Amino acid sequence: MASAPDIGILLPTRALLLRPEAPRSLEPILTLAESVEAAGYGSVWVGDSLLASPRPEVIVTLAALAARTSSVRIGSGILISSLRHPVHLAHQLATVDLISAGRLIVGIGYSSGTGIWKLEHEIVGIQSQTRQARAREGIEVMRALWADSSATHHGQFFDFTDINLAPKPVQAAGPPIWLHGMRGEKTLRRVAEYADGWINNLPTVEEFSRSWETVHSNGAEMGRDMSNFGACHYSTIRVDPDGAVARKKGRQFMQAYYGGMDPDEIERVECCRYGTPVACAEELSRFVEAGATTLIIRLASDDQREQIDLCSRALLPILEQSRAS
User: Fold this and answer.
1) CB under 8 Å, gap of 24 or more: what pairs does 52-61 form?
2) pLDDT at residue 324 in the model
3) C-alpha to C-alpha distance for 308 and 135, rounded to whole angstroms
4) What is the pLDDT of residue 114?
5) Residue 186 to residues 10, 86, 202, 297, Cα–Cα distance (Å)
6) SS3 299
7) Whole-angstrom Cα distance, residue 169 to residue 162?
8) Superfamily name with CATH number, domain 6-324
């Protein structure tokens, strides 16, 4: 049996802004994180967006979560790093790692180069077609700045000589960087070359397994030690004692979340599982058996506490069975 995964919860920072009334405090998110930690989950995650799907700013939110929790890992799922200068970002992330005493995971994604995602980049003075190259070079910059010695970098987008950025992160090599990627040889090669882990929300176990095998083999070809490489699967779930109720309410939530998008289309492009806690646990266990070392769960519900309670009682023990064995 596969080893027990880290099981994390995506905190509903986006859903906070979908309510009719404007938020007056981040306290509901912070207290929810404390509840997730007390329930025995291993990590909490927050998303990022400037314009496309508004939510509280990710770095500030991570810092608040670091101060309000003590044991869970905290992660960005995912950070659009190309929107930010990597020297500034390295400074921010090192500080968050210090606040959290070394619990930070940096999940990075590239976003889309069209529509409002293109506008997000252009409004901060960045050509969207350069976002992937900027993100890759930015990773090199941040890792150099997090090292003990002063850093020098001469690249396509960033150039500096003999810079010593302080404070350094608590984690010796800096926070692990996990890249989001789904399919395609170029995408999966980038993950294997630049990342410490892989984040995806592929809709089926079969697709996950094929892509993970590709990432793993690419890394081995590059001479990387893949034994500690993170494989993180992100899924949306809705649980209920009545599986039909879970499916109905889960699909309604996702349709509203994505502005009226057809739920069938959503389920074709990302992983959604609606059903009883046991049924959802069995489905997620298949991803663990296929190699997932971390599960990020987004709860398709306005009542997050109810869903966390249901998952804690019936889903979490099933996913953790391998730990006892």
Assistant:
1) 52/111, 52/115, 52/116, 52/117, 52/120, 53/14, 54/14, 54/17, 55/13, 55/14, 55/16, 55/17, 56/13, 56/16, 56/26, 56/29, 59/89, 59/92, 59/93, 59/96, 61/13, 61/26, 61/29
2) 42
3) 34
4) 87
5) 28, 23, 17, 27
6) strand
7) 19
8) Luciferase-like domain (3.20.20.30)
What is the identity of the amino acid at 2? A
The tokens for 270 are 């990302």
Backbone phi and psi for residue 32, each to the nearest 5 degrees, phi listed first: -65, -40
- CA dist 157 and 127 (Å) reads 12
Per-domain residue ranges for the chain? 6-324
Q: Are 207 and 244 in contact (CB under 8 A)?
A: no
Name the one residue in this structure whose structure tokens are 């906070």. 16
Q: Where are the beta strands (DSSP E) in 261-301?
A: 272-275, 294-299
E strand segments, 240-320? 272-275, 294-299
- Per residue in 154-211, pLDDT (tens digit) is 999 999 999 999 999 999 989 999 999 988 899 999 999 999 999 999 999 999 999 9
- Separation between Cα atoms, residue 14 and residue 253, nearest integer Å: 13
**Structure token digits, residue 189:** 């090669």
Q: What pTM did the predictor assign?
A: 0.94
Q: What is the pLDDT of residue 184?
A: 87
Say if residues 34 and 9 touch (Cβ distance below 8 Å): no
Q: What is the pLDDT of residue 22?
A: 81
For residue 151, name the pLDDT band (cuts at 50, 70, 90).
Answer: very high
On whether the CB atoms of residues 14 and 51 are closer than 8 A, the answer is: no
- Tokens representing 64 are 């608040």
Question: Would you state the pLDDT for residue 4?
Answer: 59
Average of pLDDT values for 244-265?
Answer: 94
